[in-house]
Design a protein that fits this description.
alpha/beta, Arc Repressor Mutant, subunit A, D-Maltodextrin-Binding Protein, domain 2, two-stranded antiparallel ribbon, 11 strands, DNA-binding transcription factor activity, WH_DNA-bd_sf, DNA-binding, DNA binding, transcription
Length: 279
Amino acid sequence: MDITNARTFLEVVKTGSFVSAAENLHISQTAVSARIRVLEEQLQRPVFVRNKAGARLTPAGEQFFRFAATLVQVWEAARSTVALPPGRAAMVTIGAELSLWSPLLKHWLLWMRRECPSIAVRTTIETADRLMALVQDGTLDAAVLYGALRRPGLVAELLFEERLVLARTTSPTTTEDPIGIDWGADFAAGFRAAFPDRPNPAVSVSHGPLALDYILAAGGSGYFREGFIRPRIEDGRLEIVPNSPAFAYPAYLVSSEKTDPSMLPRIREGLRYAAADTP
């Protein structure tokens, strides 16, 4: 299958019409129609119904849509791997959740640059579910995420274990109004069990570092990764709330049967080094 046809299919789905897809792809509407016709011949099914309002997916088109994005992503991964930058002998692709990038993945990138100079690196920030899907289909060699769920063909190994602790600012204006932070379903369940009568927070943030910046500026409290806030505890701007429950927050390295076996030990070694070097 021509990947160009799959890209064109996705553009028609995104824009809802052949005309808009042609404009975005900088080709003629006739070329879009020709690519979709070839795709339909290969699938032996029509994928769009065209009308005055644009184009909508047929049942067969809806089924193909589930695979089209993966086809394009896998092709891009293969192309990137084959077309290595000058002076590089191999490519490693790794993803992580946003909250893990600083400082863990920063330390890992520096380790890779120092210890594996012949290996090119491609990185991705995504949600946990999306990362696991990308590892599963081979787009990523591995991913680092919290609370890895079991999926067929994936291997999750414990990388390190953190704690989420309740911390508050130490300024005289500090209030007990806690900020809500999205640390995943396991934390949410544990938090509700520990604080069954606590109302929903007035302010909720999905990214821990942003929540920390907020309470340092405005005062307040919230659950944070213990290692991440240690510098703020040491400089006296934060303190751990006495007698408050702490929650385990393990991080996992997720790989698949498709991961290059020669790459995985290097990824693992660098991440364990970075984890040990991360407060």
